[in-house]
Amino acid sequence: MTAGDPSPVPVEAKAAGTLRRSLLLPLMVYAAGGLILSLTVHLLSFFGLQPGGTTLFGALHAGIFPLWFAVVLISRRSAGVGWLTGAGWRRNYWQDALSGCPPWMKHMTYGFFIYAILNFILFAATAPTGKPLGGAPPSSVWHGFSGHWMAFYSAGLAVLTSAYRNRFSTAERKCPNGHAVELNDQFCGTCGAPLEARRR
User: Fold this and answer.
1) C-beta of residue 178 within 8 angstroms of C-beta of residue 169
2) In this predicted model, what pLDDT tens digit does every residue of 104-129 receive, in sequence order?
3) In this structure, what are the phi and psi dihedrals at residue 194, rounded to the nearest 5 degrees?
4) Which end of the chain has fewer beta carbons closer than 10 Å to its terminal beta carbon, N or C?
5) Tell me: the pLDDT tens digits for 39-51?
6) Domain ranges in the chain?
7) Percent helix, strand and coil across the chain, each to the nearest 5
């Protein structure tokens, strides 16, 4: 095989790409479920309702951490940053991490983060003082915390959706001559051909 011949994609690499995408789907459902629940309790908190008690409150709060462990690893990979080091850090890190999600989802995530900041400022100014004597947190605490939950579950869903739509596999991107290339490469390592810029 000459240097100019297309490089076949190994079967193992294709299988790895399929496995990665299949693992992304349950994570996307997890993030979407957390977002829907967070939005629901946030809206109900306007009416002084506290659904689920301390169990749901704790689950929504703690549920962010396992989701974001996966999201951070995936966003670093999508942005071309090393798995365990900061090597290859890019200034447009989040732009790369969200490059594959629909525009409406990206705007939704930005909107939730802006809202979370404003909601936290309001919560800090009006939060009840003193320690509650058992039972579920008051509706004002639900309201304050759920603003952050919505932002983080929304961002997690956007990063995972972006990775899925970008077909999170280095084996499936090819140069114009058919050689397999890495997700964030700008030139083919085999023939040197320039690669089409990724959509942002």
Assistant:
1) no
2) 999 999 999 999 999 999 988 887 76
3) -70, 145
4) N
5) 999 999 888 887 7
6) 12-79+93-125+139-165, 173-200
7) 60, 0, 40
| Neighbour-count burial of 168, counting CB atoms closer than 10 A to its CB (0-12 exposed, 13-18 middle, 19+ buried) | buried
Is the CB of residue 78 less than 8 Å from the CB of residue 166? yes
**Do 10 and 171 meet the contact criterion of CB atoms below 8 Å apart?**
yes
The Cα–Cα gap between 110 and 116 comes to: 10
**C-alpha span between 39 and 82 (Å, rounded):** 34
181 pLDDT more than 50: yes
CA 85, CA 125: separation in Å to the nearest integer? 39
Tokens for 32, please give them.
């979407």
Please give the average per-residue pLDDT across 137-141, as a whole number.
Answer: 83
Q: What six digits make up the tokens of 29?
A: 């459902």
Question: Do 75 and 160 meet the contact criterion of CB atoms below 8 Å apart?
Answer: no
As a whole number of angstroms, the distance between CA 147 and CA 105 comes to 17
Query: How far is 150 from 165, CA to CA, in rounded Å?
Result: 22
Q: How far apart are the C-alpha atoms of 197 and 185, rounded to whole Å?
A: 9
